[in-house]
Amino acid sequence: MTVGVVGAGISGLTLVRSLEERGADVAAFEARDEPGGVMRSRRVDGRVLELGPQRLRLTPGIESLVDDLELRDQLRIGDDDQPLYVYHDGSLEVVPLSVREAITTDLLSPRGKLRILKEPFTDPQRPGETVDEFLVRKFGRQAARRYFGPLYSGLYGTDPRDMLMEYSLGRALDGAGIDGSILTWVARKVVSGRDAPPICSFDDGLGKLSERLYEEHADSIALETPVERIEETGEGYEIVTPDGTERVDDVVLTTPAPTSAALLESVDDGLATTLREFNYNPIGMVFVESDLERDGIGALVPSGSDVGISGSTWNASFLDRDRLFTCYVDPASDPEMPDRSDEELGAVAAAEFERLTGASATPIHVHRWDPGMPAYDRSWTAMDDLQPPEGIHFCANYVGRPGIPGRIRNAKRLAGKLAEDEGDRSRSAAVAESN
Ligand SMILES: Cc1cc2nc3c(=O)[nH]c(=O)nc-3n(C[C@H](O)[C@H](O)[C@H](O)COP(=O)(O)OP(=O)(O)OC[C@H]3O[C@@H](n4cnc5c(N)ncnc54)[C@H](O)[C@@H]3O)c2cc1C
């Protein structure tokens, strides 16, 4: 079996590793001159900036990967026993993430707190319900709009009123095995003492993980080799790049939906049309230097507020990164964001960071992602029509979990399935031959 993999972000890198472990031949192509996709780190004036994800959860799967790649001595465990804030009514309030914080928070009125306790007696998800409708019905308007909504939708830059449960939060809850009351599920976790895995990064940033994965599989990954198109041959597929054509049995696309659409045009134009329907939100990452001394993981800004950033991550506080804070700007928080110069974007974010925290901030770097995060908005109903032909597979955040542990699990699962299918094909061929 030869598998062609398009893209060497964390999904592509994990696929290459898992497929090779199963004895498959792999040919992977990456358009850029470095691996990692959005999981990329940069040093600017001595500081480590995470251009994409800021941290990941050290799940057992990630921990064993870290050990296999001999990265344990570079692992940086974050202190996540710090508050997360949300902007409300002109100031930052602590997001209640523990029973103690839930009782003491000023974010909700006593009535708003009591309303949350009704959740176990509410109906499960209803057909056609939006994330906002679901959260309001479950937890009441205050908790839904002031923190559950921003907590879930913050990273995607999408208003919870535009996200359908079935295609967004509902999938995340299913993935976590929550099919009944969310509060009961949380209470069981608290009682059983099962904590979330710690948050982590590496001394040189998360890009280290991609770098090491690439080093171990460099023979199978062609950097600076953008795939131009994919063509069907009757017996498999051809992957066309500026350097030539690779014949493969199966193709896995790890690229964002619009890119995959362009590559698959000649294989199946209906599929390409479906792929073009998925919306993405551009994201501006503004890195600022500040003397803010407060402990915290970061601050969320609910959609619809008057603040020009959608949130910030406090790398200085929980990852001990020297005076570094990362602000997020998207068109929902700042409609002029796509047209602003980097200088303007830096100034807007620094000013808003100052307004929220009271500490002065200086922009040190700006990075933009376009396409950024999948929006998981109403355009995700296109999932129902996403039927790739045999031999074409998607392993990307718009069809699976977006977090890094989720991407790694998806890639390993797909590699296992491809190897199994190949085993079945070989057995059938052997039986046919012996007959
Ligand atoms: C701003 C941001 C913050 C995030 N924060 C977190 C976080 O804190 N924690 C967390 O767990 N997750 C976070 N995520 C989510 C997570 O980082 C991503 O879902 C994940 O890294 C996506 O990896 P991927 O390999 O699926 O896709 P990508 O990283 O997008 O990789 C796709 C690859 O395909 C390549 N490519 C594109 N076109 C072609 C072509 N024609 N030919 C060949 N190659 C091509 C690209 O260059 C890229 O390397 C964040 C994401 C973003 C954008």
Automatic annotation (TrEMBL):
Source superkingdom? Archaea
Q: Which Gene3D superfamilies match?
A: FAD/NAD(P)-binding domain, protoporphyrinogen ix oxidase, domain 3, Protoporphyrinogen oxidase, mitochondrial, domain 2
Membrane-traversing stretches = none
Q: Extract the Pfam families matched here.
A: Amino_oxidase
SUPFAM superfamilies noted in UniProt:
FAD-linked reductases, C-terminal domain, FAD/NAD(P)-binding domain
Annotated segments matching region Disordered: 416-435
Q: Which UniProt keywords apply?
A: FAD, Flavoprotein, Heme biosynthesis, Oxidoreductase
Native organism? Natronobacterium haloterrestre
Q: In which pathway does it act?
A: Porphyrin-containing compound metabolism
The record, for InterPro entries, names: Amino_oxidase (IPR002937), FAD/NAD-bd_sf (IPR036188), Protoporphyrinogen_oxidase (IPR004572), Zeta_carotene_desat/Oxidored (IPR050464)
Required co-factors = FAD
Q: What segments bear the compositional bias annotation Basic and acidic residues?
A: 418-427
Question: Which protein is depicted?
Answer: Oxygen-dependent protoporphyrinogen oxidase
Organismal lineage: Archaea, Methanobacteriati, Methanobacteriota, Stenosarchaea group, Halobacteria
Molecular-function GO term, any one: oxygen-dependent protoporphyrinogen oxidase activity
Residue stretches making up the Amine oxidase domain: 10-415
Among the record's GO biological process terms, what is one? heme biosynthetic process
